[in-house]
């Protein structure tokens, strides 16, 4: 796995780049404003920007002969410049009251020794006999490799090479300052960014300590920069969803172990009494109960993980009829009857067909167990509502909310059906429906399922 790029390094590089670009832009802008006459010496001409380069060419041409005498012997670069600019003249003095060094331009050397021929402008001058650009010149006192000298030139013109030399010369003067500032800025940026990211390192340490038993605690965003708070919030939300999923899995595992224990114990007891007349019917009823519980838990788990659709269009009457028809043989063998009726036009609802069938199957199985022998369980469909009606002991008003809690029992001696009803309620909630219980006229329990209706043209029950 490749190493991730450093945010600190990136920010430091970007800041340094911005500083260097800013320095270049500032220098270029300064030259441009001077050329436009908006700042600096407004008497300057574009040709005056050649002074630095011409001065360097003259200084580089200084040399001593075999006797040690100092003179000017034009280098190839200076000779080339003279050929391109015939008006260019130069002169070098050890002092103005002394003759110019050998190799200096005779005319300029003579003019600089006559005060009346010059109009002094500080380091720059103008030759009265040469109006315009050719008469402009400069006189600079310079510490050369050969000592302190006065270097003068006139008649120069600007060339492209002069601009590059000017930039490099200015950068040479200001480069040290810019470099020091840049290094100081880089150090400050590096330290500042690392300090700012310190909470992220603490958050990373917290995240590494999270395991399956501590998903819900999330990551503490205290001290985190505002820019990364959305990332931390999103991570905590993801951890919360994962924690909810894990808790749901644990709950289903615990529910299954707890609720399946009773039917399995009953099934085992029945297997030890094979001579009972109702042995086969009771055995079938017990296995049906186990199947219903497993089916409910499976469909609830799939709905919880978003693996099945909740947007199916379900024919409610057809679904209830298929459940009733499947339980009818069992009801007959158990000495009970089960009836089905519909009121009004067929009802179509939005949900999941398997989930609805699972809930109805659980309610029918419970009703068959509660119904006295010889009695009739009624399954009724009307206006997006399903009623499963029995005539057993019923549910006390004080227990009508509690029965939908996991593991609820009226007493320890009562077989538990709380898991089935708890999962049934969870499934109905996911499908935006309701499940509740009322008293059957004459005694017993009536469980009602209410669904949001979906308009559909009437059609026969399949």
Automatic annotation (TrEMBL):
Residues 255-455 form the Histidine kinase domain. It comes from the Bacteria. It is found in: Membrane. Keywords: Kinase, Membrane, Phosphoprotein, Transferase, Transmembrane, Transmembrane helix, Two-component regulatory system. The chain crosses the membrane at residues 12-33, 171-193. It comes from Methylosinus trichosporium (strain ATCC 35070 / NCIMB 11131 / UNIQEM 75 / OB3b). It catalyses: ATP + protein L-histidine = ADP + protein N-phospho-L-histidine. GO terms for molecular function: phosphorelay sensor kinase activity. Its main location: membrane. SUPFAM superfamilies: ATPase domain of HSP90 chaperone/DNA topoisomerase II/histidine kinase (SSF55874), Homodimeric domain of signal transducing histidine kinase (SSF47384). Its EC number is 2.7.13.3. One of its GO terms (cellular component) is membrane. InterPro entries: HAMP_dom (IPR003660), HATPase_C_sf (IPR036890), HATPase_dom (IPR003594), His_kinase_dom (IPR005467), HisK_dim/P_dom (IPR003661), HisK_dim/P_sf (IPR036097), Sig_transdc_His_kin-like_C (IPR004358), TCS_sensor_his_kinase (IPR050428). PANTHER family: SENSOR HISTIDINE KINASE TRCS (PTHR45436:SF5), SENSOR HISTIDINE KINASE YKOH (PTHR45436). Residues 194-247 form the HAMP domain. This is histidine kinase. It is an enzyme of class 2 (transferase).
